[in-house]
Amino acid sequence: MCVPLSLSDLSERRSAPVAQLGAPGPDRPTLLRCIKAAIRVPDHGKLVPFRLIEIPSAARDALGEALARRHKELEPDVAPKVLDKDRTRFSFAPTVVAVVARVVESPKVPRLEQELTAGCVAFQLLQAVAAEGFAGNWLTGWAAYDPEVARWFGLEPNELIIGFVHIGTARVDVPERERPDVTSLLSEFNPDSIYFTRD
After folding, report:
1. Is 172 exposed, middle or buried (0-12, 13-18, 19+ CB in 10 A)?
2. Contacts for 153 with CB less than 8 Å, ≥ 6 apart
3. Domain count along the chain
4. Which residues have C-beta within 8 Å of that of residue 171, sequence separation ≥ 6?
5. What does the record give as EC number (predicted)?
6. Which residues constitute the domain of residue 104?
7. In a domain, 45, yes or no
8. pLDDT tens digits, 118-149
9. How far is Cα 131 from Cα 170, in angstroms, rounded to an integer?
10. 133 by DSSP, 3-state: which?
11. Domain containing 63 — which CATH number?
């Protein structure tokens, strides 16, 4: 059963480095429960402008090799260590889910709003797996934006990968990093800025 996150939990949220994510990951019923929670996001127009693609463990090595080959095509002088990173990009966490934005033509809902809805799904999935006791990380990288990779994932012209959510168990304590001062981020609207031009 998913445990609701408290404000304290949310205030201490952090992403685990992907290389430090290992087994166990969520089993199938737990993952589906997390996805069910993840899709409860703001969705103007009820367009459902998102879908998810799980990358099974059996496909990870083939995908990694394909990414390395594709990167070499795009950048012939790419460093070998970068290609090694491509090969292992999806090999750490036991569960990896690609979140896809599926943009629908709409006179009322701009593309950006639909992409933001899909982004909310990715973040909500991180929150859901945390509520189930797992760790996660939301990454993109060059592969998320490459048209050939999009073809491998079966994306339509109106779709794009918002990110890859890596889910597992953190092997080390995730260190805190410096956060911005909230008072420097919050300002107040000044109504004196409103003016109308005269005809």
Report:
1. exposed
2. 53, 98, 100, 161
3. 1
4. 20, 21, 22
5. 1.-.-.-
6. 16-172
7. yes
8. 999 999 999 999 999 999 999 999 999 999 99
9. 14
10. coil
11. 3.40.109.10
Cis-peptide, bond into residue 24, ω within 30° of zero: yes
Over the Cα atoms of the chain, what is R_g?
A: 20
Confidence (pLDDT) at 198: 66
Stretch 172-198: mean pLDDT: 88
DSSP three-state, residue 45: helix
- pLDDT value at position 40? 97
Residue 96 near residue 167, CB atoms below 8 Å: yes
Could you give the angle at which helices 60-74 and 80-88 cross, rounded to 10 degrees?
150
Decide if 11 is inside a domain. no
Q: Is 198 a domain residue?
A: no
Residue 189 lies inside a defined structural domain of this protein: no
Can you list the positions of beta strands (E) in the chain? 21-22, 50-54, 95-102, 135-139, 159-170
* C-alpha distances out from residue 89 to 73, 86, 139, 165, Å: 18, 5, 10, 12
